[in-house]
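seq as requested:
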Amino acid sequence: MPRKTLKQWLPTPTRIREIEALHVLGDWIYQTNLWHINRYSASMAFFVGIFVAFLPIPGQMLVAAVLAVLLRCNLPLSVVLVWITNPVTMPAIFYISYRVGALLIDVPVQVAEFEMSAAWISTRIGLLWKPLLVGSLLCGLLFGSLGYTAVHLLWRWRVGRQWRRRKLHRARHGLPRTHRTPRTDTKPAPGGE
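struct tokens:
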């Protein structure tokens, strides 16, 4: 995955400092290793962000930030990916998660008609919470793992392609493999012969 493309999509540390929910975490979330983009940090951030996006809990951005700090992955990418579940996608994602959970724990699906109201949710929460939680955890783990694997493999493929292009370019133009100057001293390294 190209580092420059990811940096264009991600918010800056200044923008993250403006999010009031993250003030609870203090200044240690601004450590440079949490803002660095490499294969591990991007792949793990995709896992964290997608996993937390499937959790039916309030404060998903805060949970993603805490997990990013604990797993030492890219913090802004983890927090941004939580917005996979937004007001438009949330009903479909949670309904699918509920259906998966109901299938797994072998309970009949109780949702005939869905209403986005506090009264409907409060009367049905006793029947819905267990399949929703099981399905959300499973879907979060599954899709988070797929995100991790896709970014990891895409990153490796892109780096390999860049190396092959560089090698081909050097071969075509007769350039040396490296641009380092050869060592001229013949002294052995300290401790060696």
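The first helix runs from residue 3 to 9.
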